[in-house]
Amino acid sequence: MLCRKGYRSNDAGTVPVYLNVYDLTPINGYAYWFGLGVYHSGVQVHGIEYAFGAHEYPTTGIFEGEPKHCDGFRYRKTVFIGKTDLGPVEVRAVMEELAGEYRGNAYNLITKNCNHFCNDACIRLTGNPIPSWINRLARIATLNSTKVRHHRIEEKPCEEEKKKITSDSNRFNSSNSSSSSSSSPSNGIRRGRSRSRRALPPSSPLILSSSS
After folding, report:
1. Gap between the terminal Cα atoms of the chain
2. What spans are recorded as compositionally biased (Low complexity) (predicted)?
């Protein structure tokens, strides 16, 4: 497998690199005009379109096909990304480099989808990323997920503090009740389990497992 460490900018190339964009849902007909939508994309170079899809095996999910004809998706438009000076064999070597990272069973609609692959491929071929609107919903979903996790981390100590304050208050009330009942026998004895209540053990730190 050929390894390439340096990537050339589009100014040095002669071969055009295109991004073919497809609609995944009819809603895109409206969402597109607001800079949103759910899209599939493929990188077209040397007359071949390279794309990434999901399957259940630990082998690459990168596949090639005829440009602007991807089964199951409706073609929307082609975006010029830049130029490359790589030949067909070198381009295929780039795809082989990406093959290990983009396995079929590693596909994730939010963090590792076809648009992530196309962005990486375009940067390696031309030095230019794909337009931001193509994968905007995935970035929004990732941002919201991060916010929710941080929110939960911040709320955890507050919940433990509330439990501790409640526990201390119950013990204090129980102590006062016990003293009152000893000095005033006529008052009924209030049963409370707070005497034998154990202090809440310190909570274990919240550990977030890494997402795919």
Report:
1. 26
2. 167-189, 199-212
pLDDT of residue 90: 98
What's the longest Cα–Cα distance across the chain? 100
- CATH number of the domain at 15-148, please? 3.90.1720.30
Q: Where are the domains of the chain?
A: 15-148
**Residues whose CB falls within 8 Å of the CB of residue 176, separated by 6 or more in sequence, listed in order:** none
Centroid of chain to Cα 109: 8
For strands 62-65 and 74-84, give the pairing: unpaired
Closest of 188, 206, 81 to residue 134, by C-alpha:
81
- 190, two tokens: 């209030």
Beta-bridge mates of residue 74: 23
Q: Residues with catalytic annotation?
A: 40, 114
Q: What does the pLDDT look like over 135-190, one tens digit per residue?
A: 887 767 665 544 444 444 455 555 555 565 566 656 655 555 555 544 444 444 34
